């Protein structure tokens, strides 16, 4: 038996692993968006500079529905949910009460979310030579919807992250987004440099957590609460696909996390004490907690409608595999 024409099983395994690694690097990541809310959500997507837009930049997602997107390698961008949207069926023109992107259409067309909005942010295959994905859920621009990000098929820490708490119910009066709902960040509400980490407060040493960011952090420990909240809010995974769930269901097998009340020693509001909302003194009853934390949640059934580019990538990977075997 000629060793070249009939390679050993260990050789084939070795080659297969190489091809899988190469193909994962070529193919990017799959994002599945699921709506578990009792109402319609209109997700928006935004690719960062240098990344190609996904198949849609804005669409309607009814209760229980899902949609799948596939990104190219080195893609970076964000997802968010818009609520209270109304679009004219004849002209397609309209707007949303929260998370609106200002395009006047269901497609955001390269525009981002107007605060307040919960954001899921990703960098697929870092440019630092590690091949890792970086991801987070950010409340830096405020909050409008519960959102969780889960990983599948990856290696590394690959933890779930997000904010399952209903911060709209706990939002202090001074941060409330008006009739449209949502909970603003302190930066959006007050615009002062100490809240926005700007001017003299533009470094990690000078910009510290405020009582408002601590409130967000207590409710959602793994989410970004302010600009320099990197250490406990950015996560990595290699070769994963991602599920983004709006209004994730509570799991009876997981205990809800009810964090300690935030300290009141942080930055105060321009016109009064930060505890005037009563949040710090009166945490909710655990039986009806608005601060649940779920490391896992139901993924649901999602059709895997991949793009043509992804299909070509699969064909390319198969071709490479056979070429290596016959070399």
Can you characterise this structure?
This protein has a five-stranded mixed beta sheet with strand order 3-1-12-9-10, with no helix packed on it. Strands 2-4-7-8-11 form a five-stranded antiparallel beta sheet, with no helix packed on it. It has one domain (29-281): Thaumatin, CATH 2.60.110.10. The chain has helices at 9-27, 167-170, 186-190, 193-196, 211-219, 308-326, and strands at 30-35, 42-47, 66-70, 76-82, 86-87, 94-95, 119-123, 133-138, 147-152, 161-163, 235-237, 241-246. It has 327 residues and is of the alpha+beta class. The protein has six helices and twelve strands. The model is unreliable at 13-25 and 252-315 (pLDDT under 50). Keywords: Membrane, Transmembrane, Transmembrane helix.
What are the defining features of this structure?
5-stranded mixed sheet; 327 residues; single chain; 5-stranded antiparallel sheet; Thaumatin; 18% helix; 6 helices; alpha+beta; Osmotin/thaumatin-like_sf; Thaumatin_CS
Q: Based on helices, strands and strand pairing, what is the structural class?
A: alpha+beta
With helices defined by DSSP (H or I, 4 residues minimum), what is the helix count?
6
Number of strands: 12
Q: Whole-Å distance between the termini?
A: 16 Å
CATH architecture: Sandwich
Q: What is the CATH fold-level name?
A: Thaumatin
């Amino acid at each position: 038996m000629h060793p070249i024409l009939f390679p050993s099983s260990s050789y084939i395994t070795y080659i297969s692993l190489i091809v899988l690694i190469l193909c994962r690097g070529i193919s990017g990541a799959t994002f599945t968006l699921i709506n578990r809310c009792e109402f319609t959500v209109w997700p928006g997507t935004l690719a960062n500079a240098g990344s190609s837009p996904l198949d849609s930049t804005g669409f309607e997602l009814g209760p229980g529905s899902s949609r799948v997107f596939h990104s190219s390698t080195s893609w970076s961008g964000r997802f968010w949910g818009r609520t209270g949207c109304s679009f004219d069926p004849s002209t397609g023109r309209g707007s949303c009460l929260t998370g609106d992107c200002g395009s006047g259409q269901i497609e955001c067309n390269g525009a981002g979310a107007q605060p307040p909005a919960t954001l899921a942010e990703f960098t697929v295959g870092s440019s630092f030579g590690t091949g890792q994905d970086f991801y987070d859920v950010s409340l830096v621009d405020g909050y409008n919807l519960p959102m969780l990000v889960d990983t599948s098929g990856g290696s590394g820490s690959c933890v779930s992250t997000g904010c399952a708490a209903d911060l709209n119910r706990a939002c202090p009066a001074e941060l409330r987004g008006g009739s449209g709902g949502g909970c603003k960040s302190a930066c959006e509400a007050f615009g002062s440099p100490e809240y926005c980490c700007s001017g003299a407060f533009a470094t990690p040493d000078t910009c510290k957590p405020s009582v408002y960011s601590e409130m967000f952090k207590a409710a959602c420990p793994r989410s970004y609460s302010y600009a320099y909240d990197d250490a406990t809010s950015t996560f990595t995974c290699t070769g994963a696909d991602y599920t983004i769930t709006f209004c994730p269901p509570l799991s009876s097998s997981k205990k809800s996390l009810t964090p300690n009340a935030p300290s009141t020693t942080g930055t105060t509001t321009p016109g009064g004490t930060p505890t005037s909302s009563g949040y710090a003194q009166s945490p909710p009853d655990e039986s009806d907690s608005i601060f649940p934390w779920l490391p896992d949640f139901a993924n649901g059934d999602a059709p895997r409608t991949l793009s043509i580019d992804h299909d070509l990538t699969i064909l390319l990977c198969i071709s490479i595999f056979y070429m290596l075997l016959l070399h």
